[in-house]
Amino acid sequence: MTIRITEDIRSITDLKRNTNAVLEQIHKTKRPVVLTVNGKAEAVLVDAKEYEKITNAFNLLKLLAPAEEDIKEGHYTEAKDFFQEFKRAKEI
């Protein structure tokens, strides 16, 4: 989702004048549009489905981060050892 500077940065005035065209661009390209006020980035418009994908990916990342930290700190059990212990505990 690379932003194209010449296409994806627009002023808020341009959005007001060409709302349908901007929305059509977002839906067609799946890229965000950066809205500027007085030449400075003020907001970002994103296609709703793309936003859901980004949100889902971020939520998954938040779930995985603690597990990655545990692995870095050596707080894990090899799968083979885990299943052996599980079988012993459940008398399987």
Keywords:
single chain, three-stranded mixed β-sheet, 92 residues, YefM-like fold, alpha+beta
Description:
The chain is 63% helix and 15% strand. It is an alpha+beta fold. The chain folds into two domains: 5-46, YefM-like fold, CATH 3.40.1620; 49-90, no CATH class. The chain has a three-stranded mixed β-sheet. A hairpin with a 2-residue loop joins β2 and β3. The longest helix is centred in the middle third of the chain and has 25 residues, at 48-72. The chain starts with a helix and ends with a helix. The mean pLDDT is 95.
As a percent range, the share of strand residues is 15-25%
Shape: elongated
Strand count, sense and barrel status of the largest sheet are:
3 strands, mixed
CATH class of the largest domain: Alpha Beta
CATH architecture name of the largest domain: 3-Layer(aba) Sandwich
CATH topology of the largest domain: YefM-like fold
